[in-house]
Design a protein that fits this description.
This protein is mostly helical. It has one domain. Helix content is about 75%, strand content about 0%. Helix 1 packs parallel to helix 12. The radius of gyration is 19 Å and the shape is globular.
Length: about 300
């Protein structure tokens, strides 16, 4: 039974984690003025891997044998690609909007799970998808006049990041049927680090001392945020915690207003509410389907 104290503590960890991610967004926005996106993504993965190394090494090499290397590779490719999209959107868009596009992933998860894992999609999921799509349209304010781009390319890249993040999470669900969390985390850290190192062959720039500090801050904020979210979800059901994840938009809006004088528009508020409702509805429906399918399907995603 989940106590009121567990719910409060879990919510506190979720909100703290989203504050870390919004702080990461500030670092990305600042350091992107000096360094390319490829450098920032690599630094985030490198420092994250170094921070996780002691925990992974304590578990030894014996448990690293896997029969599904292709799924580990898919998870890492989707996760790193989502990271490139999000970091680019954060550097080019108002911070609150970029954080909100990151949070569209829960809306896409049921659809990907239906297409790939043949999970049942209820009427509630289709309602959630419609609400989420409406929220995205409200925020992006598409220009329907003749000859104009309907939605900015930067916004589409951020939205693509949400789709890729959803694919990564569904892949983790598929992996969790046979793979322990420590093995999933290890292979993501290893493959993501290797993938993000490749673009440095043509995109390397020697960072200044201040840029190095910002890169370290970005990576530490991201890792602390992930650990806080994982801790929060271990204390209380995700169905009760999902809405607190959207506090990232509030933190992003606050940072954007304080640092860059970015306005908090009525469209942002309305779109945030719509996507939050869609994410909660989709998450509840997905969890119901997973519990009905049995423990293998219902295994939660690993951190990272």
């Amino acid at each position: 039974m989940v106590t009121q104290r567990s719910l409060l503590l879990g919510a506190s960890f979720i909100v703290a984690g989203e504050l870390c991610f919004a702080t990461m967004g500030v670092g990305i926005r600042i350091v992107s003025a000096e360094l390319p996106n490829e450098m920032i993504v690599f630094a985030r993965n490198l420092v994250g891997m170094l921070l996780l190394a002691p925990w992974l090494l304590r578990r030894g090499a014996g448990g690293l044998m896997t029969g599904v290397p292709h799924l580990h590779l898919l998870r890492a490719l989707a996760g790193v690609s989502a990271m490139y999209c999000f970091f680019y959107a954060i550097a080019k868009m108002p911070l609150a909007e970029a954080m909100l596009l990151k949070l569209t992933a829960p809306v896409f998860i049921p659809l990907i799970a239906m297409l790939w894992l043949q999970e049942q999609v209820t009427g509630l999921v289709w309602v959630a998808l419609g609400i989420g799509f409406a929220g995205v349209l409200v925020i992006l304010e598409p220009d329907l006049s003749p000859g104009s781009a309907v939605v900015s390319p930067v916004a589409l890249i951020g939205l693509l990041g949400g789709v890729l993040a959803a694919l990564a999470k569904v892949t983790v669900r598929r992996l969790s049927a046979t793979e322990p969390p420590s093995r999933i985390v290890f292979y993501f850290a290893l493959i993501a680090g290797a993938i993000s190192a490749v673009p440095l062959l043509w995109a390397w720039q020697t960072p200044s001392p201040s840029a190095l500090l910002w890169l370290l801050g970005v990576a530490c904020s991201a890792t602390l945020g992930q650990l806080a979210l994982t801790r929060g979800l271990s204390l209380a059901p995700a169905s009760r915690m999902g809405a607190f994840g959207y506090s990232a938009v509030l933190f992003g809006a606050g940072y954007g207003w304080l640092i860059w004088d970015e306005p908090v528009t009525a469209g942002l508020v309305a779109g945030s509410l719509l996507i939050a409702v869609a994410g909660v509805l989709a998450g509840r429906s997905t969890r119901s389907a997973r519990h009905a399918a049995g423990p293998a399907t219902a295994a939660g995603p690993a951190p990272g």
